[in-house]
Design brief:
This protein is mainly β and 199 residues long. It is extended. The mean pLDDT is 81. The chain has a four-stranded antiparallel sheet with strand order 2-3-4-5, with no helix packed on it. Strands 6-1-7 form a three-stranded antiparallel sheet, with no helix packed on it. The chain has a three-stranded antiparallel sheet with strand order 9-8-10, with no helix packed on it.
Length: 199
């Protein structure tokens, strides 16, 4: 476990209430409810003034959400970098976990094994691992995938809808999420035909 020493000071609940999600803080590092006896870089999940009762929720850069009572002396609290503070141990970011969905044209077991071997050669055999694997046959079909506002304009006909084109391969929809306030619309793919008269 790699840590680095950071000079920081502990904040009171009143000081935390003045912070926003863009401010960098440190909270207790936890993995699967196991306290690691050090801190992790984090940020508040929403502006501090929106929390009530002195309890704040922070999300670490590793994806864990932690509820903290800064004024409770029995808890690790919330810290912020400050040269006038004291040294704390902060967990370092060791890398990035990628969840990949790979589309292999005419794919078979040999193709997948070749991809896996190439990734292990590029990044190291101890780095690249298969966490889960699902082999799904992909139909030879295309769809038009759009996003539309979840609450469309009243009496808006299909030609004037607010929409944005995203993709044309249906299997990728399973690994995507619509933007906030938008929903997916899937329609049969229509090739764009240029009917401009030519001479």
């Amino acid at each position: 476990m790699n840590t680095e020493k950071v000079t920081a000071r502990r904040l009171t609940a009143e000081e935390v209430s003045e912070l926003g999600p863009q401010d960098g803080i440190f909270v207790s590092a936890e993995m699967d409810d196991l306290s690691l006896d050090c801190y992790a870089p984090a940020s508040l999940t929403e502006p501090g003034q929106k929390f009530e009762g002195g309890s704040f929720t922070a999300r670490t850069i590793f994806g864990q959400e932690i509820r903290v009572l800064p004024d409770n002396s029995e808890e690790p609290g919330i810290w912020v970098a400050d040269e006038a503070g004291e040294e704390i141990e902060v967990l370092q970011n060791a890398g990035v976990l990628l969840n990949l969905a790979l589309f292999v044209p005419n794919g078979n077991r040999e193709s997948l094994d070749s991809l896996y071997s190439a990734a292990r050669d590029a990044f190291g055999a101890g780095i690249v691992q298969r966490w889960s694997e699902e082999v799904v046959a992909v139909p030879d079909v295309k769809v038009d995938l759009f996003e539309e506002p979840a609450r469309g304009r009243k009496n808006a006909n299909g030609q004037n809808r607010d929409r944005r084109a995203l993709d044309i391969y249906p299997t990728r929809v399973r690994f995507m999420e619509p933007s906030d306030g938008w929903k997916f619309i899937v329609e049969p793919h229509k090739e764009i035909v240029d009917e401009t008269p030519t001479i």
